[in-house]
Amino acid sequence: MRWTRRGRSHLLARSFHPREHRLSPAAPAAGSPPRAPVDLPPAAPPPPPPSRAVRTLLTVGATLVLGVGAGVAPALAAEPATSAAVPAAAVPAAVARPGCDAAALQRTVGADTTITAAASATTPNTATRYCKVDGYVATSGPAGSNHVNFSAALPDRFVGRYLFNGIGGAAGSIPPIDEAQLAAGWAQAGTDAGNQGSVLDYRFAVDRTKALDWASRGVHVTTVATQAVTRAYYGLPTQAGALHRYISGCSGGGRMGLVEASLYPTEYDGVLAGAPGSNSLNILKFGQIVSYLLAHPDAWVSPDQLGQLEKALIAKYDARDGAADGFIRDPGVVDTDFAPYGLFTPAQLDLLRLITGELKVGDRSYPGFSASNVTGWSAFLTGTQPPSTWGTQPPPALILFDTVTRALFGADYDFRTQFDFADPADPQSWATTFDQVFPGQNAAADSYDRFRDAGGKLLIWHGASDNGISVFDTIGLYGKVAAHQHGYADTQRWARLFTVPGLFHCFGGPGAQDTPAQGLAALADWVEHGQVPRTIVVHSAADQPKADFLLCPYPAHPIFLGGADNPRHLNALDAENWRCSA
């Protein structure tokens, strides 16, 4: 591995996430009175299936127990008040339905789709009864055949909404259902994107058929299959409005939503894309950072040092938004020249410049990471332990760059000895090969025109302190779309971006943790009632000090009403005391 300061390239990264944030119930829509959900007559009970084992999913870092049984669903309680209801007209009277039966549901899908199981089930926490449907779609080409697995959860009480749960990283498993949304009457679906493995391991993509399934085809074909199953199960017609269709995810799950909007613009009415990994150079940025650390282990910065830097940065920049509340709400105000703080060696300062600096590959680029909460860098980018321990404790950035690079150039390829960031040809070859192996990423600004023209709504959210995918990259993408759309005003009619103070990659950090739930509620109101999300209020986690945050649609930003001196002693952690700039 060679590294020289002269000719150093700035390279990019792509999306992944070791754990997907699970949604909590959608907040009731302002001005949208709840309507009773449709209580469908129970289908004939299927034969009793075998019990399901506990399923541990790395993508959420939690264990989901699916209780499976047989029988007719009993009468259920009224729909929880936390669900924004869909107009009754959107759920027509039930017609002949296949019931929760695999053989009957098989007749509702295409020849490439196999329903492997269908059984009545009950969630362990909310006691919600639903039909659990498992299956796969057979794909082929360019290098052979593959099975893209999927699962659908169809609640006995249904409010006309379908939610596809995206999954981050390399996928590798089907994401768990969201019990709260299921209890609120949302049908749900998810896929492993054609890869049965680890969420951080991309070596599966040496099989180019699996690579294509992961990149775009997998979500598409399982969307088609599970929407067909959902319509048939509830007896819904195929015309627009009979089923409100949403896709939501973070990191790679957010990427899935953007890919659907750009390549298959009529498959979803609303896309909720969290911290979307839409720029493949993100992974290359990881490689740039870990390669420098492997070559210069003395440049490693400890978590304690990053903690000292964060305190200094908050002291300097916290009040720039008018409130000294412990949050740098606009990461763009931070000067990333950290030398004046006297905390780091020259080698460490070089590392920090790589983390916060732009990576360039030919005519493409990837921005540096936000420095609004630098303590998050240890967990994702630089490791919580020195590079000498990385043989057993590598940071996610190393695992991702290593396995993606092996997928591109062969299982035996070792970037430590074969990849040279000082040679522009190597990162250029990496970027070109990535686009060939994983087509459909890095969408152009005009790629979303058909989604817009079809009436789709796009709501993007991103942590201002994201330590895995740069918030500045998402801001840049949104800016390019706005430039293509003749400005932010036109773009905001169908697409809006919200940044979340103090939030790390999808979850974690001192900021709000319920953005996916609040974003989904806002998106549903936008799609179904035309209520444009002018602001969104999100909240801290239960185990953190109480704080509410007002999110403003970019490029607007929040302004504290108390002013710098706060003579009225307003609480800066109460969203009521903020407004959005014009």
From TrEMBL:
Its EC number is 3.1.1.73. It comes from the Bacteria. Keywords: Calcium, Disulfide bond, Hydrolase, Metal-binding, Serine esterase, Signal. Pfam families: Tannase. Residues 1-11 have a biased composition (Basic residues). The keyword DNA-binding does not apply. Residues 1-52 are annotated as: Disordered. One of its GO terms (molecular function) is metal ion binding. SUPFAM superfamilies: alpha/beta-Hydrolases. Belongs to the tannase family. This is Feruloyl esterase B (Ferulic acid esterase B putative signal peptide). The lineage of its organism: Bacteria, Bacillati, Actinomycetota, Actinomycetes, Frankiales.
